[in-house]
Amino acid sequence: MTVTTQELKQVIVDELTSLGFSFDEQGDLLFPSSDKKAIRHLHKPAKEIKLQESQKWVKRKLPRYQHYFANGYEIDPTSVTPLLIQVNETWHSDLFRLARLLWSLPYTSGFGRRLRYLLLDESNNKLIGILGLQSPPINFPARDHLFQYSEGRKTELVNQMMDIFTLGAIPPYNRLLGGKLVALAAASNEVRKDYRTKYAGRTTEMEGRVLPAHLVALTTTSAFGRSSIYNRLKYNNEVIAESLGYTKGYGNFHLQKLYPTFKEYLESEGVSTQGGYGTGPRRSWQLMRTVLDMVGLPGDILKHGIEREAFLFRLVDNLDDYLQGKTQTPTYRDYPFDDLAQYWKKRWLIGRAERVDGWHQWDNQAIAEILIPTKGIDDDSIDK
What we know:
There is one protein chain. This protein is of the alpha+beta class. Helices cover about 35% and strands about 15% of the residues. The chain has one domain (about 30-250, about 305-370). The chain contains 13 helices and 11 strands. The strands form 3 sheets. A 7-stranded mixed β-sheet has the order 3-4-5-6-7-11-10, sandwiched between helices. Helix 7 (about 180-185) packs antiparallel against helix 12. The radius of gyration is 22 Å and the shape is globular.
């Protein structure tokens, strides 16, 4: 049964209240606490939906792949040997999806051009972490204020970048700063060479033109405020992740639980919810804005207040000149993955393993408890 306009308005208010939002006397939205526990609580409904939708698949696949998730006693830090594996086979994709469902952020498969990777420990054949890259946002103020794009070529140039949509280490490697290894891997020669191999000569779906298969930069945002993974991330003395400041805290994940209801309401009112290229994040944003307007709630409700730290990975030395059109030839930085992995091992892994002992006790049965919950979703999940 389709809800009325007034009923839907109340449903939205009730959902926001349950997530910790409140309204002042003027009806303006007041944000909940910005600490990590509160932010996880905001993401929880959307995460629960995605995990619940995947339960049959998880129960079928997890027994086949659980041996890839390490117990603490199976890791010898001095023997850790990272491998970077592009997701090309079914088992790669299955393992990537299982790992991604561990995040406290809602599951996403990315959009547009995509590259996905597993990082395995060759010493024990266990999963260290995962990396996912997707098409970048065309408009991203934190990035765009840095550059003067060659006139009329912004879309072409931005599409020679990618956005990191998933990056993180799996327990117990996350406790050994495995996230920094995955972040270093994003900047590796192997990733940009894989990009060239996959997309050389390919036409864009939206504009039907061939773009240069150059991967000149990456962007990303932290999961929660200031990032412990990306900050101070260097290779030798070179900054890998350059902080660009903070986003403004807009999005629609906190209302994703109501999205099916929104679509049903719009269709009952004669508003089309179909879309071609708009079936991604931008389209869902547009539909939610339409619903808020129709029920008489301010668009500021889509401001969730979570400011994420934005980062830029420069993969070429002459990025500014390249984006300004002063040169047509990018000068790539030389970051072989094996060199990055050895640097991470000496710089972070060995010392961390000696200082912190909690990873020894990690039992991989906890993976099953997160992926197949019996009492709802645990907030203590893995984060980018």
